[in-house]
Amino acid sequence: MNCAVIQFAGSGGDGDCYHVCKNILGQPVEYIFHKETFAAQDFDLIILPGGASHGDYLRPGALAARSKVIKSVIDAANAGKYILGIGNGFQILLEAGLLPGTMLINKDLKFYSEDIFVRVENNATPFTNLYKNGEVIRLTVACKYGNYYADKKTMEQLKTQNKIVLTYCDINGNAAEASNPLGSMENIAAIANQEGNILGLMPHPERCAEEILGNTDGIRMFQSILQYVEGGKIHDCSRRS
Amino acid sequence: MTAREEAKKLGLTDLEFDEILKILGREPNYLELSLYSVMWSEHCSYKNSKPVLKRFPTQGPQVLQGPGENAGIVDIGDNLAVAMKVESHNHPSAVDPYQGAATGAGGMIRDIFTMGARPIALLNSLRFGCLCDDRTQYLFEEAVAGIGDYGNAMGIPTVGGEVYFDDSYKENPLVNAMCVGIIKHDKIVRGKAAGVGNSVMVVGAATGRDGMHGASFASGELSDDNPDQGSPMQVGDPFKEKQLMEACLELLQNDWVVGVQDMGAAGVVSSTCETAARAGSGIELDVALVPQRDKDMKPHEIMISESQERMLVIVEKGHEDDVKKIFKKWDLDAVKFGTVTDDGMLRILENGKVVGEVPAASLAEGVPIVKRESKRPVYMDKLQIDFSKIPVTDDLNEVLFKLLDSPNIASKAIVYRQFDQTIGTNTVVAPGSDAAVIRIKGTKKGIAVSVDGNGYYCYLDPYEGGKQIVAEAARNLVVSGAKPLALTDGLNFGNPEKPEVYYQFEKCVDGISEVSKKLNIPVISGNVSFYNEGKFSAVYPTPIVGMVGVLDDVNKHCTMNFKKQGDLVVLLGENTDELGGSTYLQEVLNITAGPAPRLDIELEKKVQTCCLKAIELGLVNSAHDVVQGGLAVALAECCIAGNLGFSGEIETDLRPDTLLFGEGQSRIILSLPEENLSVLNKLAKEIGVKTSVLGFVKSGGLNIQVKQKEQVVGKIEVSTERIAEIWNNAIKRRIEK
Predict the structure, then answer these.
(1) What is the per-residue pLDDT for B222?
(2) Domain count, chain A
(3) Cβ–Cβ gap A142/B416 under 8 Å
(4) Active-site residue flag, B43
(5) Count of A-B CB contacts under 8 Å
(6) Are the beta carbons of B419 and A113 separated by less than 8 Å?
(7) CB contact under 8 A, B152 and A52
(8) Are B425 and A213 an interchain contact pair (Cβ–Cβ within 8 Å)?
(9) Which of chain B's residues have a Cβ under 8 Å away from the Cβ of A218?
(10) Using CA of residue A39, residue A42, residue A43, residue A49, what is the dihedral sign?
């Protein structure tokens, strides 16, 4: 699986994603600088990493979504390549219009960094097929703007099309308010696009991929993608509405 | 106005003005006076502290760079080294806590990547007044947000720190930041302007009128006076700094880079004169070439501005375009504005015309050293009391609750939750344990880092307090499984012109020196912040020690939480008859009194050796040192962190409150499987440390029975749930009321 990690101006999590692809998954990986372009056929997985691109100025992700490289990301998405946006990468996907909705500031108006629990709502995606539906996993969040918001119509669509992939919950899988510290609508932690080849999530699976760091729940997300790509399972991207 | 009057207005003394006349052989103009006034301020010159700082042990085979550079560097083996430094930003944080704290972190980070090291961890040490005060709550929340937002945006994890609240810090909070970076031995860059004809460049942000006279501002007590137009406050731009960091780290891969220096306090003038002084060279520069963001800036304004996110870069002649190319990639300016000369002068031009000229070394090193008077404060004797007259409190459960509810002991999660702790995927032990542990990718190694201070002990007894801080910082690394290597200090004191304050300063330095010498943990960098004064008195003397240790196998790190029911809980070291300086006396009984706990360095050394060995041998499941709140609080913390309980009977001839809440030093609580006890005891005996079984780990609650001659004389019986609830919410409930 050929992986690309986009380096936006001010990305902080680029090295973490690169490390996981290369050293944990053992896959070839390249950095793509935001002033460059790339050909869709060169990569199977394109990661938009976390951090604070452009210092989160204006709105998180707003400026990065206007980077030169975004056109290539859109081309790759249209070509059915897998796009994974983590944290700030998720915000960039929203600002680029590749995923619906937006991010508000966290409900207590502060940066929030902690391990939280999420429930797998849909494991029939390239990103989650190694998890079980309803499974509760532990991941790390670290963000100030992780409070997902969408209008009524969009939310209905996300629900009916089963595009809500992960939701915040307590250790037993219950969607209690206390288990949603960012205030995200419907406890949303991750969503996919209609075609299912783009996933945006606020928690950081790349930080939960090694025993020495105390948590390996995140590595299965990367392994899921690898299995999809290498296992020859062709994800059907032809359905467009 | 005469030049002498002008000098006075800028904060220079008569003696200093005379010295300038002697150096120049003529009267200085306003620009030159401005340069001397900032460079000879306490903040830049250390004129009040230099002779005392010489007492620190700074040598050791592990030291690759000691004090005098942007940061200290210590060897961790495998051709790798760690750069580290603590720095304060106290006065700016008292005025604008958000920007003050943010730019404090920013300056600290620049000091690390200036050396060529990639920053991998941030820590901070914060002091505020009582949380009952509204303004303190504002300062606290804003400072935490400022320091957090800056580090978070930079993509550097904040892995540790400490917060302490006391009225003495009410008007003058302390904000100290520490940064740790990793570097290969052969990539270390120093701040030298060497090689005649080489180019002097300014890179990063444009220069404006922010931070005017910031160094002088930091070198006096807080007031509304400001000798110049413009604000002494600086404004941080973490995004620009992130770009600057990446650009600099890319730049420093090239061997045509001669030297780099952060433009921190006193901006252009400090960076140029210090790099020239280190190399024994001179610099000729033209201020008109420096990119400016304010209109009509005068030469002295450009020279002393403290606009953030700028660096001075010296490169071999002919490589200017290579520098520009790298910085353009990161959307930053890089402009040549000067040249290295061999005449030792800092020559300042404006559009080609000389407007000022002084010997560079005289600015950087020529300040007349001030010999301050030192006098033992009278309060020290008044605060020593006889504890036998204080009745023993009956309800020990209630005491424990009150201690766990103290913001100084309670969980600081509400603070560190605002810091990204895990970016970089190296954080093995995150904030909340005794020290943070960070793995070093590509090796088996890890480092442990902690930052510690105890202003209250230092207030009661500056010498013992100074000793205790180093011992505690080292102990925090040891219980995490790391061997301490080196330390960096942040020395925060009141007005050094007051003999009592100077005494505190000297004695704290002596205490720190003594223990760092005996434990072989040299001081490799640091910072002094004087003039931290409230309305009526100085802040507690508050030296902060940041320390780094190494773990050869990071997998063998240890944490404080109890892990397994049935494990034995063993005390390493001895309970002592010391109640002075305890949080119990101060916060529960409202008695501010010493003596502060004594530190027996030899015993401390043995306890640490034994603990480290036990961890390395894999004998123990947890280790935690006994500090504020004493044995009972330490046991409670192990229970809360592990969501388990403890049960034990402790036979003693001490008063039950002294046993449970006294803060005697050199004690570590271990938990281990019963079958490892005999090996541990044998090890302890060989080293010469006492061990005693306190009890065992169980589920549910914390039960301690204190016995004298087999009679129960006091007990604690509380559920883990209850103490966790109190400990977790102590700060939150005060802020959200």
Answers:
(1) 64
(2) 1
(3) no
(4) yes
(5) 94
(6) yes
(7) yes
(8) yes
(9) none
(10) negative
Same topology for domains B3-39+189-365 and B387-402+558-735, yes or no?
yes
CATH number of the domain that residue A106 is part of: 3.40.50.880
Counting residues of chain A whose pLDDT is more than 70, the rounded percentage is 96
> What residues make up the domain containing A118?
3-230
Active site residue B624: no
* Residue among A95, A32, A94, A41 nearest A69 (CA): A32
Q: What is the pLDDT of residues B452-505, one digit of tens each?
A: 999 999 999 999 999 999 999 999 999 999 999 999 999 999 999 999 999 999
Residues 99-118 of A with CB under 8 A from B: 110-114
Domain residue ranges of chain B, discontinuous segments joined by + = 3-39+189-365, 66-88+97-170+411-554, 387-402+558-735
Q: Which residues fall within 8 angstroms of residue A238, CB to CB, at 6 or more apart?
A: none
| H-only helix segments in B40-133 | 42-45, 50-53, 90-95, 97-114
The CATH architecture to which B66-88+97-170+411-554 belongs is: 2-Layer Sandwich (3.30)
Q: What is the ipTM of this complex?
A: 0.94
Strands B158-165 and B483-492: unpaired
Place of tokens 């914060």: B126
* pLDDT score, position B92: 87
A80 to chain B, any CB pair closer than 8 A? The answer is no
CA of B153, closest CA in chain A: separation in Å?
5
pLDDT at B99 over 70: yes
Give the chain A residue nearest B428 (alpha carbons): A213
Give the fold, CATH level 3, of B387-402+558-735.
Phosphoribosyl-aminoimidazole Synthetase; Chain A, domain 2 (3.90.650)
Domain B3-39+189-365 has CATH 3.90.650.10: yes
pLDDT for res A236: 47
Judge whether A214 is closer than 8 Å to chain B, CB to CB: yes
pLDDT at B343: 95
Q: Averaged over B424-444, what is the pLDDT?
A: 96
Q: B145 and A206: CB-CB below 8 Å?
A: no
The mean of the pLDDT values for chain B is 94
Query: Range with the lowest mean pLDDT among A215-224, B210-219, B441-450, B688-697?
Result: B210-219
- Residue A93 domain-assigned (yes or no): yes
Is A11 a member of any domain? yes
B412 touches chain A (CB under 8 A): no
Residue B676 structure tokens: 């490892």
Cα B426 from Cα B90, distance rounded (Å) = 30
Q: Which candidate, A139, A127, A128, places its Cα nearest to that of A208?
A: A139
- List all residues of chain A from 1 to 40 with a beta carbon under 8 Å from chain B: 9-13, 15-16, 19-20, 23, 33, 35
Report the C-alpha gap between B444 and A220 in whole angstroms: 24
Shortest CA gap B299–chain A (Å): 32
